[in-house]
Amino acid sequence: MDNKKVLETSKKRQAIMDGAIKAFEVEGYEKASMDRISHHAGVSKRTVYNHFSNKDDLFQAVFKRFLSEQELLKNISYSPDKTIEEQLELFADAELFLVNDPNRLALCKVLTTVFMQDYQLLKKTKTKYGPPHDNLVAWLTSADADGRMIVPDPYMAAQIFHAMVEGALTWPALFQPCQSNEQFKPLKDEIIKTFLSRFENKASC
Length: 205
Hints:
The chain is mainly α.
């Protein structure tokens, strides 16, 4: 297959996934048939089936693309040359990526609703992906080894950080209009300060 054909196929596949997101948002996951998905994607139903065998496969592809985009932001290596605050802010921003854009916020609402209504689908989906906090766990381990933080249990510390960000910022954002990074920043800064009050090595400051 030549490069032009590959590009066209990729664009078609992306358009179908975008159409699925719109269908899930407007129709609801259960009522979003392949017919409605093809309508929102602006392609024929046959084209949809050429790329995805069923709605579940399409849903999984949408979710995988969503996670992949976020994972690129979470791929943060510990740096001794940067402040702890600015590095933790990158992790917080990776979580806020889910909700600080209207399209991503809409998708996040769809995914949340679907998973809350179908636990088996959530369970099936989670088994396909690794632990969600591995990047932060590795970063915390490196910060501890460098003496800038005291983190006896990096996995628990990562859970605490994400719980603070998700509880104070991500979840509330699902129930209100999309907010900008500037609007998130005051509370985000306080979350980081609170986290560091527990784990930062004061002797290294």
